[in-house]
Amino acid sequence: MNKNKNSNTYIILYASIMVIIVAAVLSYVSLSLGKIQSENVRIEKMGDILRSVGQGKGADTVPDKAAYIAEQYQKYIVDSYAVDAAGNRVDGADAFNLLINLKAEYDKPQAERRLPVFVSRDDQGKTSYVIPIWGKGLWGPIWGYIALADDWDTVNGAVFDHKSETPGLGAEIASSGFQAQFRGKHILDSAGRVVAIAVEKGGADPNDQHAVDALSGGTLTSRGVEDMLKSCLGDYDRYIQRQREAAVASVSTAQADAAVADTVAQSGSVTGEQVSEAAKSASLSTEKSDRDE
Q1: CB within 8 A of 196, min separation 6: which ones?
Q2: What's this model's pTM, rounded to 2 decimal places?
Q3: What CA–CA distance (Å, rounded) separates 49 from 128?
Q4: How many CB atoms lie within 10 A of CB 12?
Q5: What DSSP letter does each residue of the chain carry, written as one string?
Q6: Backbone angles phi, psi at 117, to 5 degrees
Q7: pLDDT (0 to 100) of residue 165
Q8: What is the pLDDT of residue 37?
């Protein structure tokens, strides 16, 4: 029996089948591309973390960029974790998964945020702590990574990027020249509290350890970078304080142990009073060192 291809039934049936087939093909393509895009995002973020600590420089010269970045990340990023605004580590948090959608964390109230930290160690054993940051530029989101030395104050490196800032103006936050200014700057004041780094229009004082030059013609994007630094680094303030307090306590303990060992070496034995005096001496030494800084 011949079907009437001009009938309404045939036309509706044919159109429905074609819609189903096209939808299935588009869905398959979308899923396939989604996996590729997710992997590209993962590799890009790994590469940015590496660049903030001066690693992964050969990524653009190797045949397989993704494999190279993954290998370098595995080698130089030795730990990652998340903290909260109260300065506590968050048990069970996946720092990299948080990084993938960092905006979602900063959309939460401060007390509910889980903030990622990445720990790097180079070939000489130097440790850096990489803090991801997120903010708003002139035309869209901006983001970056600040690598801090083991004093949690000195900047070892900085990387910034953007979605849609103006080429030649605000987009220059992604340039090596702008980012290099941050190296060696400090994020803490004399009391050890986070003040971040100002991005000053008209040029920063070269002797100001808490300021860099703003972009020429990119004032609003520069202001966005400054606001991003103050807001995001400020969320880590309590955690940074705790790390510095722990470092001082560790130094004091080490000095006390050394003083006790020296007493034992000289007298062949040590009394409880001598231990107390050695610890007191170490504590005074540490306090003097803090004042001198």
Answers
A1: 187, 210, 226, 229, 230, 233, 234
A2: 0.78
A3: 11
A4: 10
A5: ----TTSHHHHHHHHHHHHHHHHHHHHHHHHHHHHHHHHHHHHHHHHHHHHHTT--TTGGGSS-HHHHHHHHHHHHEEEEEEE-TTS-B-TT--HHHHHHTHHHHHTS-GGG--EEEEEEE-TT--EEEEEEEEEE-SSSEEEEEEEE-TTSSBEEEEEEEESSPPTTTGGGGGSHHHHHTTTT-B-B-TTS-B---EEETT---TT-TTEEEPPTT-HHHHHHHHHHHHHHHHHTHHHHHHHHHHHHHHHHHHHHHHHHHHHHHHHS---HHHHHHHHHHHHHHHHHHHHH-
A6: -135, 135
A7: 97
A8: 77
Q: Which residues are within 8 A (CB) of 191 and not within 5 positions of it... i.e. 6 or more apart?
A: none
**Side chain identity at residue 162, one-letter code:** H
Query: Token pair for residue 6?
Result: 């001009």
Reference 147, options 56, 224, 222; nearest CA is: 56
Residue that wins the pLDDT comparison between 221 and 268: 221
Cα(240)–Cα(238) distance, integer angstroms: 5
Round to whole Å and give the CA distance between 215 and 171: 9
Q: Which two tokens stand for residue 75?
A: 């080698």
For residues 107 and 97, give the distance between their C-alpha atoms in angstroms, rounded to a whole number: 16
Give the pLDDT confidence score for residue 293 in this predicted structure: 46
Q: Is the pLDDT of residue 271 over 70?
A: no
Q: What is the pLDDT of residues 95-110, one digit of tens each?
A: 999 999 999 999 999 9
